[in-house]
Amino acid sequence: MAVLIVEDNPTNAMIIKHLAKKVTSKEIKVAGDGNTALMLCHTESFEILIVDYQLPGMSGLQFVKAVRLMDRYCDTPVVMVTADDQPRLCEEAKAAGVTDFLRKPVEAVAFRKLLADHLGAEAVHPELRSA
């Protein structure tokens, strides 16, 4: 299994991918929009999805709702990355199936800990879970 990052900003995608590589040796794929990410989810299995809230064409929430309709993704952790800190968004996202949130700009230690927590024993650096 692999990690999927759904992020339209190439710089943000590169940063998140770099941080993820510090936690896991799994393959990390990046999709620049929700439609591409959905196609990948239909053909591959991902262990965790890291999804930007604002995406072109389809919002991160729309993507999460669509991917949660797929049996193989009903229990997959979904981390939403957003600069928006409105409580309403948090409620809507949780209702759509988002597991956790990260605020932009992404803080490296918090991101690595969150990813390690979700990957569990498969994390490259399990000590990050207690960091």
UniProtKB/TrEMBL annotation:
<feature type="modified residue" description="4-aspartylphosphate">
    <location>
        <position position="52"/>
    </location>
</feature>
<keyword id="KW-0597">Phosphoprotein</keyword>
<keyword id="KW-0804">Transcription</keyword>
<dbReference type="InterPro" id="IPR050595">
    <property type="entry name" value="Bact_response_regulator"/>
</dbReference>
<dbReference type="InterPro" id="IPR001789">
    <property type="entry name" value="Sig_transdc_resp-reg_receiver"/>
</dbReference>
<keyword id="KW-0614">Plasmid</keyword>
<dbReference type="Pfam" id="PF00072">
    <property type="entry name" value="Response_reg"/>
</dbReference>
<feature type="domain" description="Response regulatory">
    <location>
        <begin position="2"/>
        <end position="119"/>
    </location>
</feature>
<protein>
    <submittedName>
        <fullName>Response regulator</fullName>
    </submittedName>
</protein>
<keyword id="KW-0805">Transcription regulation</keyword>
<dbReference type="InterPro" id="IPR011006">
    <property type="entry name" value="CheY-like_superfamily"/>
</dbReference>
